[in-house]
Amino acid sequence: MNIICFGDSNTYGYDPRSYLGVRYDADNRWVDIRAAETGWAVRNLGENGRGIPAKAPDFPTDTNLLIVMLGTNDMLQGRSPEETVQRMESFLSGLTLARDRVLLIDPPPMALGAWVPEERLIENSRTFAQLCKELAERMGVRFADAGAWGVSLAYDGVHFTEAGHRAFAAGLLEVLR
């Protein structure tokens, strides 16, 4: 099985205890945990600071599953949940892969922290999750709600802790079964 994980710093495996873009060890990154436990070929295309691109890249045609988890950076930069989901719809519409090969995951809701100083951002992240679910249904792509997986966030209110990566990996496995 060939899987591509396309996302932001939480897909990349960013360790928020560092300020230089350092990643957690492979044993503590959800993408690598899934690859190790399943034996699947999993490519990590996570990138620190990535928002939803205006244009979808061409992913290899032998991709069995494209996992997309984006939107947090868009909202942190001031976009509303509605604007962010419009960007997501445009991105997903531009994919060349069949829609049944796409899994859209809404990021876990933000929490109060160094990067999330106000409740409005938390509410926006919850609204975005609901809008993503509706978008997935409308577009015929698979959907997973990472907000239900008990993902713990670091002091900044955005990035996964090591335990959060393990919880995310476990929740994803249940979805993929």
TrEMBL record:
Cited SUPFAM superfamilies: SGNH hydrolase
Domain SGNH hydrolase-type esterase: 5-167
InterPro entries tied to this protein: Ester_Hydrolysis_Enzymes, SGNH_hydro, SGNH_hydro_sf
Family annotation (PANTHER family): THIOESTERASE 1/PROTEASE 1/LYSOPHOSPHOLIPASE L1 (PTHR30383)
Protein name: Lipase
Source species: Flintibacter hominis
